């Protein structure tokens, strides 16, 4: 009798709502908003151009940018938006580098 007096939807609505809310949380955690631009490798003839380009989107000096590029594969820019990262990748690929967005 206790089930009939509680109402038809009150018993199952609590667990269903909890499961739906838990699913929404999992979906929002999967969306990545900050990316890293990773220089995989580059054409040796384009090294100077790549160093100049790395300096243009970082605040590194010439020596620091050179050291960073020479130790490829390495992350050259952290925490960028997808749009900003894709722009950097296009410029570096055009110069002869292999670059990925992580």
UniProtKB/TrEMBL annotation:
Origin species: Saponaria officinalis
Record GO biological process: translation
Assigned protein family: Belongs to the bacterial ribosomal protein bL12 family.
Polar residues: compositionally biased ranges: 10-20
Domain Large ribosomal subunit protein bL12 C-terminal: 35-101
UniProt KW keywords: Ribonucleoprotein, Ribosomal protein
Protein name: Large ribosomal subunit protein bL12 C-terminal domain-containing protein
Pfam families tied to this protein: Ribosomal_L12 (PF00542)
Gene3D superfamilies with a match to the protein in the record: 3.30.1390.10
């Amino acid at each position: 009798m206790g089930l009939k007096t509680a109402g038809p939807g009150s018993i199952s609505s609590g667990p269903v709502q909890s499961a739906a809310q838990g699913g929404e949380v999992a979906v929002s955690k999967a969306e990545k908003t900050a990316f890293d631009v990773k220089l995989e490798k580059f054409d040796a003839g384009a090294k100077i151009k790549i160093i100049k380009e790395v300096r243009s989107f970082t605040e590194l000096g010439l020596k620091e940018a050179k050291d960073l590029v020479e130790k490829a594969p390495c992350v050259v820019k952290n925490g960028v938006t997808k749009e900003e990262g894709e722009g950097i990748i296009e410029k570096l690929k055009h110069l002869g580098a292999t670059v990925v967005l992580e």
